[in-house]
Design brief:
alpha+beta, Arc Repressor Mutant, subunit A, Dna Ligase, domain 1, three-stranded antiparallel beta sheet, three-stranded mixed beta sheet, 19% strand, DNA-binding
Amino acid sequence: MSDRVERILADLRRQGERITPARRTVVEELVGADGHLTADELVERVHETVPGAHLATIYRTMDVLERLGVVEHTHLGHGRAVYHLADDVHAHLVCESCGAVVQVSPKLLAGVERRAREEHGFVLRAHHFALVGRCRRCKSA
Amino acid sequence: MSDRVERILADLRRQGERITPARRTVVEELVGADGHLTADELVERVHETVPGAHLATIYRTMDVLERLGVVEHTHLGHGRAVYHLADDVHAHLVCESCGAVVQVSPKLLAGVERRAREEHGFVLRAHHFALVGRCRRCKSA
DNA sequence: ATCTTTGCAAACTTTTTGCACCAAT
DNA sequence: ATTGGTGCAAAAAGTTTGCAAAGAT
């Protein structure tokens, strides 16, 4: 279907990975999601196509996809991680009061990345953690 | 002993909180630590003075101290949180390869904080999550 | 004497792992 | 026919909670 899906699957095959129904569906959901998904949300969606799919399989699949550089995960809050395609780079603002998540341009962090590199020798993956704060509506509360 | 310790304990008392040996020791360790401590590190240190102290007590104490604005916690990596005095604000750079943690000036994030506010209406607690990346030594690996 | 705080054990949440079975190549 | 992937169930890892007993005020 989607060109992007097929390209990713071909990548996987090229690396010697096997394409199972669960894996194909995970990739389709990630491509279709435009945004981030938790492991839980992923199993749920995958179940519509592969009823028996297990959460452990999702985690193992994400592991493979991350190792191949196809996806990345980000920690939005206390605990749960979210996954998204690696070429869809963005930073996350999370409201600690209402839980709202806003995806913002990675440029927001460009300055920090530069300074971390110049002043501390650190190459950041700045978007690996969300930026926590209070959104417009909650900031008064 | 330390002025800072006594000031914090007085604050607690003023809020109707009781000062137990465990709590006094937690505060002393936090003040003495100059930097961040995990709950685990805290129990361990508290044990030298209050042998029976339980991890659950540490968590409950941190809860109280956070509610009163005395401490804050930060997520350095996958899982563990670290605690430090709220008036000791700093950002954290964590090397995802070797685990090294560097404390840096909160100014590093000042620009991001301003832009998040101006462009997205978000008031950040930017130091609540660590900035993940690779340190000088690990960045080649 | 009162009402909090503690210790303990158990629940919880998210992620990982060991193992026998099944399926993609 | 081979491997590698899967489901399941159990283990981690970090934090939270219910409860009765101990302790601060």
